[in-house]
Design goal:
elongated; two-stranded antiparallel ribbon; single chain; alpha+beta
Length: 419
Amino acid sequence: MKLNFQIALRFLFAKRRAMLMSLAGIVFGVSFFIVTQAQTSGFEDFFIRTIWGTNGAVRVQDQFQHTVTTLVAEGEGDAEEQVGFAVPLREGRSYIEGIQQPRQVMEAVWEFEEVAGAAEVIRGNARITSGFRTQTTEVRGIHLNQYLSVSDLANQVRYGELQTYAEDPHGILIGTLLAERLAVDVGDSVRLQGVDEARRYRIGAIFETGVEEFDKARVFIPLRESRILLNRPTTSSFIQINLIDNDHADRVAAHMQETLNHHVVSWKTTERTWLEVFRALRFSSGITMSVIILIAGLGMFNTLAMIVMERQREIAILRSMGYSRRDIVNIFLSQGAIVLALGTLIGWAFAVLFTMGVESVPIRIRGIIATDHFMVHWSFWHYISAALIASAVVFVASYIPARRAARLEPGDIIRGTGG
């Protein structure tokens, strides 16, 4: 085996320039594949964390009741002797908006061992006014301590202090874009026009989730205030929940819906469109970078095919010395393995450097997320995936010339009829 490896090295160095080109292709293909996957996954993970920190992992909302009719069957015989029976048929569901008994539902939610936090929320629309500026806003009534357990609100505050809001019975939290439109700052007063009355609130803090539709229209006020403003004295809109493992949201949501008799939706359902977009981007970038590895594999195939043509006499001598066809195949596969190993290891090293560089690139993004630099996700599986793709390409590129070399017969080559 050691001698086969030495022969492979000798054949390889005979075409060092061509092999270096193939090696460079594998290095850059592997490294770029890892970097693009890390970048796409990074933005996807950051988007998911933003959703968890804003809307929670699971939401319990409208109560439902099944619509049931009865099918009656009559027995045989005389009318006086007939025995009938009724079969209930479930035709569908009718929904009752909101949660009618929030305290009981909250207690039931905490019976699920997967639950890490739960918060009662009242939601409604109102008109917010500051000076001569007025616009429609989405009011959310919350109990602050509850809501902090199911959101990232504490880290989303950009101006002011949550403590100031918590200590003011008429405090309000507003988004950054809404504050800009109203030209208000922390400490200013705004007027909310609800269902039946208008009330004034003082801005305790200004938050930024990074999701534009939230930051330009959403405000938070104390739960008790929202009951008065939105005329919801006993009911709630929904219960927002975070789990110990939010990746299990679909399973937990299905279990809760069956148990609580309320409509329960997970973040994977509400954000399915964006998750599909990120998945498509990751798949597309993976294909694009794999093409570079494929081109490098084609270059290696051509190089090895040339080695077979140019080294027919050496191959004939090896066969005459007792080398089997399997030995010849191993020699050429070893050349591919050498280039693969070097290309993968160097590509991994470049990927680490490139990823660190990309992560430090400043960029301001506001829309579905808020970030001031590129997001990356460090994953061992990105490196494994790149190595597997390179291995498959290099194996095919090496195996075909190796089989051709193994089929050469010494006698044909000496008589000049081989090849």
